[in-house]
Design brief:
Elements lengths: L1 H16 L8 E9 L8 E8 L2 E8 L10 E6 L2 H8 L4 H4 L5 E2 L9 E8 L2 E8 L8 H14 L4
Parallel strand pairs: 5-7
Antiparallel strand pairs: 1-2, 1-6, 2-3, 3-4, 6-7
This protein binds 2-acetamido-2-deoxy-beta-D-glucopyranose (NAG).
């Protein structure tokens, strides 16, 4: 009995060390695009959260600049929309991705990222904009469409 508890404990340690998570523990899914050699609102992202279920969109400069105060807008997001987005997340695939894929921002390209936060952890994957990543094509595509939908609204 005692050794099986030890085994479970070890297993859960390994689980969190590898950044694995359960879908039902996901608290936010966010994604952004930014540019390095850029002035103005060079960083823009959307962030869908589960509690409350809503969507925030943010535009900010690369470093504090009084001509470009950070802009933030909250949009209503339905439970259906949250579930549709969450359905595109494969914890097993996402947690195994490298934190940086390719050479994001190189050759003046855009830096795209997806971050998933869950109950006791968080992982951000950063990649070259407009590229896709095997296994999460649907998630990337959906988040791009969300950025295109919400960010131009303010
Ligand atoms: C998205 O919002 C959640 C809840 O406020 C926060 O914990 C998380 O850090 C946000 N993600 C980003 C990328 O700011």
């Amino acid at each position: 009995m005692q050794s099986s508890w030890k085994y479970l404990f070890l297993l859960s340690l390994l689980h969190s060390a590898y950044g694995n998570f359960e879908k039902e523990d996901v608290s936010s899914i966010s994604s952004g695009l930014s540019f390095g050699m850029c002035r103005g609102y060079c960083q823009q992202f959307v962030n869908a959260t589960s509690n409350p279920v809503q969507l925030s969109a943010v535009k900010q400069p690369n470093s504090a600049d009084i001509s470009f105060p950070p802009l933030r807008q909250t949009f209503s997001f339905s439970l259906n929309q949250w579930e549709e987005l969450l359905a595109l997340v494969s914890p097993n695939v996402f947690s195994k991705l490298a934190d940086t894929i390719g050479c994001p921002g190189c050759a003046d390209g855009g830096i795209e990222w997806i971050q998933i936060d869950w109950k006791d952890g968080s992982k951000r994957v950063t990649f070259e904009s407009r590229r896709t990543i095997k296994g999460i094509e649907g998630l990337i595509d959906k988040l791009r469409k969300m950025r295109e939908e919400y960010l131009p609204q303010f």
